[in-house]
TrEMBL record:
InterPro entries: Tscrpt_reg_Rrf2, WH-like_DNA-bd_sf, WH_DNA-bd_sf. One of its GO terms (cellular component) is cytosol. This is Rrf2 family protein. One of its GO terms (molecular function) is DNA-binding transcription factor activity. NCBIfam families: rrf2_super. Gene3D superfamilies: Winged helix-like DNA-binding domain superfamily/Winged helix DNA-binding domain.
Length: 145
């Protein structure tokens, strides 16, 4: 089963944009800092741009930046922009017994996804960026001792 890392990549990229909110950053720069392919970042930025979370400008002096302050962007906004469908899928079995189990399981999955979205809506990009900065500062302090 393939793991979708689009949401995590999107959050990481958005944190980097939040660190320099007035600076246009290229997908190459962001990709280099995330140690991933610029195409991955461009695909994520395209979806975020379409959702109104990122402003992107093409051309030699182009790049991307947050479309609004990080305090106004929740993880739920990012998740919705990068959503690739249901988190969980039930298997399709032919028996009637399996259909009843699948139906019950489907309801559990819907409840989990609702809870996930509710939890993501409580956290802003700004909060994640601040936590990341504190952890980085703490790690730097340990390196210099």
């Amino acid at each position: 089963m393939a793991v979708n890392t689009r949401f995590a990549t999107g959050v990481h990229a958005m944190v980097l944009l939040a660190a320099e909110p007035d600076t246009l950053q290229t997908s190459e720069t962001i990709a280099g800092r995330l140690e991933t392919n610029p195409v991955v970042v461009r695909r994520v930025f395209s979806l975020l741009h379409h959702a109104g979370l990122v402003d992107s400008h093409k051309g030699p002096s182009g790049g991307s930046k947050l479309a609004r302050p990080a305090k106004q962007i929740t993880l739920a906004d990012i998740y919705k922009a990068l959503d690739t469908g249901d988190l969980f899928h039930t298997a399709e079995f032919a028996s009637e017994e399996a259909a009843h189990t699948a139906s019950a399981l489907h309801q559990v999955f819907k409840n989990i996804e609702r809870s996930l979205r509710d939890e993501l809506s409580k956290t802003t990009l700004s909060q994640i960026a601040k936590k990341a900065t504190r952890k980085a500062a703490k790690a730097d302090g340990k390196k210099h001792k």
